[in-house]
UniProtKB/TrEMBL annotation:
<protein>
    <recommendedName>
        <fullName>Reverse transcriptase domain-containing protein</fullName>
    </recommendedName>
</protein>
Length: 204
């Protein structure tokens, strides 16, 4: 009788452990899915190897091992040489072009020099939750994650979650009325999106 009872207890404990392991495995897979940048996993694929390969493939596309210097045509392998090549390329790309100052003045003269009281009141009015949801829905469906490594799809889910409503409203309205901005809003992250050409060419 004691052995039978002991056996049942072991079975119950074993079942509980298996359930917890299954739950943990699912959570790990879901985290890996986010890291891999997948909106959905086709054919219910949750293989750790598949997800790891996808994440590594994405990471390779984000990292450039060498760059061809746009001026010298030489390969740049170390950080200093890469920075010099990038600086040369983007300095040329974003160099100021001559403009017609008369046309510029003409355009500026059509812009009101001050905001009307009605517009000013509208600008500083509180943001509604519906406005925030509408804005989040209009974000790109495909995008590179920011510094938190979360794509817009995940951000939309967080914003739309009922438990987050009051916090979301507080953050956005504090930014308008109190000029209080989250630290993450004051950071920038430049992500270069590779095209079909060679990654060594900065124009790609």
């Amino acid at each position: 009788m004691i052995r039978s009872s002991s056996s049942k207890v072991k079975e119950m404990i074993s079942l509980e452990v298996e359930n917890k392991l299954e739950k943990l495995q699912t959570e790990i897979a879901e985290i890996d899915i986010l890291r891999a940048g997948k909106r959905r996993i086709e054919n219910n694929e949750k293989s750790a190897g598949y997800l790891k390969r996808t994440a590594e493939s994405r990471n390779i596309k984000r990292n450039i091992t060498k760059i061809i210097h746009p001026e010298t045509g030489l390969e740049c392998l170390d950080i200093k040489a890469k920075l010099d090549a990038a600086s040369n390329f983007y300095s040329t790309l974003y160099s100021a072009e001559p403009i017609d100052h008369q046309d510029l003045e003409s355009m500026l003269n059509t812009i009101n020099k001050q905001v009307s009281p009605k517009d000013a009141k509208h600008i500083i009015s509180s943001i509604s939750f519906d406005d925030i949801l509408d804005g989040s829905r209009r974000t790109p469906h495909k995008s590179s994650p920011g510094m938190d490594e979360l794509p817009y799809e995940i951000l939309n889910l967080i914003i739309g979650y009922p438990s987050c409503k009051s916090l979301v409203l507080e953050i956005y309205n504090d930014a308008i009325s109190k000029a209080l901005f989250p630290k993450s809003w004051q950071q920038t992250c430049l992500v270069l999106l590779p095209k079909t050409g060679a990654l060594t060419n900065l124009s790609n």
